[in-house]
Specification:
This protein is an alpha/beta fold and 678 residues long. Helices cover 30% and strands 26% of the residues. An eight-stranded mixed beta sheet has the order 10-11-14-15-16-18-17-21. Helix 12 (480-500) packs parallel to helix 14 (525-543) and helix 13 (503-516) packs antiparallel against helix 14. The longest helix has 34 residues, at 644-677.
């Protein structure tokens, strides 16, 4: 018999996140931290279970003991396993073992204290029947309360799963996708509205930091083949935001900002970006479009994607990857994995090689259909079914529980064989692996005896049942006015970048347009529309600080002449602009003014040649143009009059005067003739 090793550590610190256990109303928080081996293919000498017990109540518990709990018969279906998770009970999660090797004394656990336990149990003492399947296994704690009462029911417990499969099992093609995403919201000045939240995510105990540590341990501890089966997925907007926060440089001009009340954590942000880039370089990387624009909102009635905004997100993605020295496969992840077929096809036509979908939009899909599908005929879009079952662990959604649940699912796949013999879990966008993720051994899902590590979507299976979104799941995309504001802001930002000859300015407003139509605004429609309009007004107002003016009415001394135009640059940087003068129908043609450089905070008067010809009044509009000839701004409207009009009037008046004189002369002559006759 192997002795039971017990380590008890009492601290005054908090016990960490509470874990669900085998029953309701638990008064001690039991968390499992280790299970060795993670899967059985025979009869190992021992099975080791470790965990912690935290007392978050105000009661002192004495004479506490931890007991191994095992179900003697395994589950052989996913449905049975789900029942154990949904309604844990002694029948579903196991029986308490009373052998010496299956118990350990914890002693007294004071309020706020935590104890650790380690049970090393001979295989024979597990009490399982040895059939192939998934055995619930865990721990329960019995203790005496302050009143001296010791009930037979556990005061805390937790369980997970122990798969057992024979040596002749079919190999299961297994992959793992680890996403790095978070909502990114930016103001018109380039500041981040939740900078404290973003920095908290990458702090040493933050969710994304833990996830990155988990990914590093997974690819580092597995063999080269298993390492290749791990795919990292990232939204480049997140990495950009973290670099901005690390540098405290924001906006299109990357201005340094002194923030007296700024949250700390800049070094954590930069360290996270550096570590992620180091891990991602040379590995399989899936790249989401910048800020994850709401594709549903960008489609018109014919399901054609909005070219401008789609290209802007793609360009912002390319720019971010180039800065970081990364390359990756473009993928799409609609909100909650809910998307129409038109959306999937549109994203595929825009360059997304894979779309992640929820099984709820695939009629009658089951795990036996496989996770990697090709929609329709050969050459159709490829989708990866993101099955949320993999995150439904026994006690909690920590790394250990997820590892054991994935192993359980791979066992079911191995037993089923065929198309089902593939397991591609995609960890959730908000999933937290919990403390000490590097010790979770998640890589063991790729190195299980029946696992065949491989890249996801290498060999998608044809899916002819199509895609259907139930009425209850139909999404409400961001508002069309929000999309219009983003499109207007993008156009103005492109022109501003052109006249300043600064690619960073253009890139900044590409990013802003993509973030303005992000699917994160689906739950905040009014705020999203307000933000998009503010972005549009901000960049349009900035572009409007470069303008051209003249007086409303100009009179030429003849049919030809030079008229003055005043061009003003109220920005704090030089610009290069041209001028285009356009006439109403029938008006004179005026040659464009070639682009010229105008320094910051300066005005310059230029003169243009105008020939009005036979026109007496010519209504014209002057607008500035980018160096590429694209007009921008409202411009200035003016009227040009020719002095030829004045000479004509004088000639007419002279002629009229002559007629008057002739008339008077004739009258005078006739009057004298009449007097002579008399």
């Amino acid at each position: 018999m192997v002795a039971v090793a017990l380590l008890v550590l009492v601290t005054l610190s908090g016990a960490g996140p509470a874990a669900a256990s085998g029953g309701d109303g638990d008064r001690l928080d039991v968390r499992l931290t280790g299970l060795t081996p993670s899967a059985l293919t025979g009869e190992p000498s021992t099975v080791t279970l470790t965990g912690t017990v935290a007392n978050d109540s105000g009661t002192t518990w004495t004479d506490a003991s931890v007991y191994l709990v095992v179900r003697p018969a395994p589950y052989v279906t996913r449905e049975g396993l789900d029942a154990a998770i949904d309604r844990p009970s002694a029948i579903r999660t196991g029986e308490r073992r009373l052998a010496a090797s299956t118990t350990a004394a914890l002693g007294t656990i004071a309020p706020g204290a935590r104890a650790t336990f380690r049970l090393t149990v001979p295989y024979a003492d597990l009490g399982i029947n040895g059939a192939e399947g998934v055995y619930p296994i865990g721990a329960q704690v019995l203790a005496t309360d302050a009143a001296g009462e010791r009930a037979g029911d556990a005061v805390g417990g937790a369980f997970t799963f122990l798969p057992l499969l024979g040596d002749a099992a079919e190999q299961v093609r297994t992959s793992l996708v680890i996403p790095f995403t978070a909502p990114v919201r930016r103001t018109t000045a380039g500041r981040y509205t939740d900078s404290a939240g973003l920095l908290a995510l990458v702090a040493p105990d933050g969710r994304l930091r833990r996830l990155l540590d988990l990914a590093r341990a997974t690819v580092g501890s597995a063999g080269s083949t298993a390492s290749d089966a791990t795919t990292l997925m990232v939204d480049p907007a997140l990495l950009d935001a973290l670099e901005d926060l690390a540098d405290r440089r924001y906006g299109p001009d990357r201005e340094d900002v002194e923030e007296a009340d700024a949250p700390s954590g800049e070094s954590d942000a930069q360290r996270f970006v550096d570590d992620f880039v180091e891990l991602a370089q040379g590995r399989r990387l899936w790249v989401l479009p910048y800020g994850q624009p709401d594709v549903e909102a960008l489609l018109d009635g014919s399901d054609e994607p909005d070219g401008e905004l789609t290209r802007a997100a793609d360009a912002a993605t390319d720019s971010a990857l180039e800065r970081l020295g990364l390359e990756g496969t473009r993928v799409s992840w609609p909100a909650n994995g809910i998307a129409r077929r038109g959306v999937v096809e549109a994203t595929a036509s825009s360059g997304a090689e894979v779309t992640l979908l929820s099984p709820r939009v695939l009629p009658d899909w089951s795990p036996s259909d496989g996770s990697e599908l090709r929609i329709g005929a050969r050459g159709g879009p490829t989708v990866l079914v993101r099955d949320p079952t993999y995150l439904r662990g026994g006690s909690d959604r920590d790394a250990l529980s997820v590892r054991q649940r994935i192993l359980a699912e791979s066992l079911f796949a191995a037993r089923a064989g065929g198309a089902a013999a593939q397991v591609v879990p995609v960890l959730g966008p908000g999933w937290d692996p919990g403390p000490a993720p590097e010790d979770s051994g998640l890589a063991q899902v790729l190195t299980a005896p029946w696992a065949d590590p491989g890249a996801p979507t290498d060999d998608p299976r044809p899916w002819s049942d199509g895609i259907a979104v139930p009425a209850s799941l139909r999404p409400t995309p961001v508002d069309a006015m929000q999309v219009d504001s983003a499109r207007s802001a993008l156009a103005a930002g492109r022109r501003l970048g052109a006249i300043t000859a600064d690619a960073a300015v253009t890139d900044f407003y590409r990013q802003g347009a993509a973030l303005a139509v992000s699917q994160v605004w689906r739950g905040e429609q009014a705020e999203g529309a307000r933000r998009a309009l503010a972005v549009d007004r901000s960049v349009t107002g900035r572009l409007g600080r470069v303008d051209v003016e003249t007086i409303p009415v100009l009179t030429l001394s003849g049919t030809k002449g030079r008229i003055p135009l005043s061009v003003t640059n109220d920005l704090d940087r030089p610009v290069t602009v041209g001028v285009r003068v356009e006439s109403q129908a029938g008006g004179p043609d005026v040659a464009d003014v070639e682009p010229f450089v105008l320094q910051a905070a300066q005005s310059q008067t230029i003169k243009i040649e105008v020939d009005v010809g036979e026109s007496t009044n010519a209504v014209m509009t002057a607008r500035l143009t980018t160096p590429q000839g694209t007009p921008f701004g409202e411009g200035t409207r003016f009227t040009v009059r020719s002095s030829v009009v004045g000479r004509t009037v004088w000639i007419g008046m002279a002629g009229a005067g002559a007629l008057v004189l002739v008339a008077f002369g004739r009258r005078f002559v006739l009057a004298r003739r009449d007097r002579g006759d008399a």
